Each structure stands twice: as C-alpha cells, then as structure tokens.
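Annotated sample (chain length 95).
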Amino acid sequence: MLTLGFMTLNLNNEHGYFTEIAKRSIHHEITCYRFVPSNFNPHSETIDGEEFDNIQNDWIPKTFPLPDLLYDRCFYGEDFHSRQCKAIVDWLKAK
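Output written by the structure step:
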C-alpha cells in the first residue's frame, strides 16, 4: 500500500482538510499520516505523528517510517520552529 504524509507545523492545522483526503484515500489503497517535521528522527528515519484509521474515522498517534509521498502544508514564518522545520523539510525533499 502506498503511504502519504501530510507535513504541517501544527497537527491542529487543517484538520478537516487532511481528514477528508484521508477518508477518500482508502479507495485508492493509500495510507495517510500527518506529522510535524521536527518529529522526524534522522537516526532511525522514523516519525512520531498520526495515522488515519478508517475504522475509527480518526487520527491515532503512531511512529512510522518516512512515507512514500510527502505533501508539504507547512506555512513557514521567521520563528525558530519554522526555521527548524524548513531545514528538515529541505533535507527530506533532497532525499
């Protein structure tokens, strides 16, 4: 099954948008995850985030490997967290 990861600076952002995509993804055999880039562990190449559970129709906490596809929904500012996440996302995109 193909995996899709939504990257966001805050898991509360765009909750409805991500959920609607995730609900429809099962029909295309796609598993959806959402995560904050700063929760990526470069040593294990795993991420602490959430997986959409089609049975519960909700996001559940999970640690998972880097998804096959990444959807960058981060809106970067000048704050430390934004700069930190941008550096990680740039690295992930280059990988």
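Annotation: The CA atoms of residues 79 and 85 lie 10 Å apart.
Annotation: The chain has a mean pLDDT of 94.
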